[in-house]
Design goal:
With 399 residues, the chain is of the alpha/beta class. The chain has two domains: 243 residues, 3-Layer(aba) Sandwich (Rossmann fold); 146 residues, no CATH class. The protein has 15 helices and nine strands. It has a six-stranded mixed beta sheet with strand order 5-6-7-3-8-9, sandwiched between helices. Strands 2-1-4 form a three-stranded antiparallel beta sheet, with helices on one face. Helix 6 links the parallel strand 6 and strand 7. The radius of gyration is 26 Å and the shape is elongated. It starts with 8 loop residues before the first strand and ends with a helix.
């Protein structure tokens, strides 16, 4: 396809940015103390998209890829008009319809039939067009017997079928899909894929968000890769997936130990028998990062799993990295096992993440590293305790 031909551009994302203000629950007492002391609540922001630009041409099927928190779904919502743009602009030719959130626009108190007309109207269809497509929509959904039943009584699978059916028969020029094929039974997934290919054969333009590399390879002829709101690559599918995996792939606990050790200048230390016997899975001859792991043990930075194993080949997550860096810094906010240790953090820090609470083990590590600007949320609200940490993020953490 001739990329220089502007007449076939169906969608243009031009220098688009989106920032969210993060609000936290503040107690009445804390609010009063702030007022008396004249303290202003600091505004915390999360930049979901950072000056992203690309074009989608007629008939293209473009995959938006990236890890959680990369900005994919936010971008899709901006394109569909569900959210407002902070900077830049999005230009579209023709009518856009999207499966951004399954069943968005469906009312639980209305029947399936009534919701077909309601959702169809939201997607830009006239009553005459819905009348004309109604039998096809219902037949595709395979819920004919329940079409006059209130949607509140539908199972999640029935709900999905009807939502997808309305969207794919709304005849859009640009079709947006966000992880819609991640749910539903296998026969219906295959049926959806078949319908998507029919839309492609009809020359429709598709923009698809999916974590499934298999789906991306089957459906898309181009990929736009986002990471932490930044456009990393726009082009060939295989190149995009390879580059993304190499860049985003989590590092092992052993390699993380080596990175921490080297960041301290690979210091010399006394290698005692107690250290070399500390972990059953760490051997000087067989483990590439044995010296780094033993140094972490000697400094009290890492203690392994507590069962005689370090887990050298296990993938490291954000929580593990946070604990090690916090320990390396000497636990500056105090040992969380000591009474009152968490008093070192104000309410703004304590409510930064929905998944980190005072009862979360090693919460101090996360709160302190956030306080000094080393860490931030993966999706605006959650720290992502189990999210894998990659080499790039680890390097930032060690600066």
């Amino acid at each position: 396809m001739d990329k220089q031909n502007n007449s076939d551009v169906m969608l243009k994302v031009d220098n688009v940015s989106k920032t969210f203000s993060l609000t936290h629950n503040v107690s009445l007492k804390d609010s009063f103390v702030r007022l008396v002391k004249g303290k202003r609540v600091q505004k915390k922001e999360f930049k979901a998209l950072n000056h992203v630009s690309f074009e989608v041409h007629k008939g293209e099927s473009v995959g938006l890829i990236g890890r959680n928190g990369s900005g994919k779904s936010t971008l899709l919502k901006l394109i569909s008009g569900v959210m407002n743009i902070d900077e830049g602009q999005i230009l579209a030719r023709g009518r856009i319809a999207g499966l951004i959130e399954v069943g968005a626009g469906f009312h639980p108190d209305l029947t399936g039939r009534e919701n077909v007309y309601l959702n169809g109207a939201i997607l830009g269809m006239t009553k005459e067009q819905i009348d004309d497509k109604f039998e096809q929509i219902v037949a595709f959904s395979e819920i004919e017997k329940f079409i006059d039943t209130e949607v509140r009584f539908y199972s999640s699978g029935m709900f999905l079928r009807l939502a997808f059916s309305v969207a794919v028969f709304s005849d859009p020029d640009v079709f947006l899909i966000d992880e819609i094929l991640a749910v539903g039974d296998q026969p219906f997934k295959e049926k959806c894929m078949k319908r998507i290919r029919e839309l492609q054969d009809e020359g429709k333009t598709l923009v698809i968000v999916s974590h499934s590399e298999e789906q991306i390879r089957k459906v898309c002829d181009r990929c736009v890769w986002l990471s932490h709101g930044n456009l990393m690559y726009d082009g060939d599918v295989e190149t995009a997936l390879t580059d993304m995996n190499e860049f985003e792939e989590g590092i092992t606990r052993g390699y993380m130990a080596q990175m921490i050790y080297e960041s301290k200048g690979s210091p010399k230390f006394e290698l005692s028998k107690e250290l070399t016997n500390a972990y059953e899975d760490v051997s000087e001859k067989l483990t590439p990062y044995a010296k780094a792991i033993w140094w972490l043990k000697s400094e009290g930075i890492a203690n392994g799993y507590g069962n005689g194993f370090f887990g050298t080949d296990d993938l490291a997550n954000r929580m593990t990295a946070s604990i090690m860096i916090y320990n390396m810094l000497g636990k500056p906010a105090g040992d969380e096992n000591k009474k009152g240790a968490k008093a070192d953090f104000d309410n703004e820090i304590l409510t930064t993440y929905a998944d980190i609470t005072p009862s979360t083990p090693n919460a101090n590590a996360v709160w302190y590293l956030t306080k000094i600007g080393k860490l931030g949320p993966v999706d605006g609200y959650n720290f992502g305790k189990s999210e894998l940490i990659n080499k790039n993020d680890m390097e930032k953490l060690l600066k």
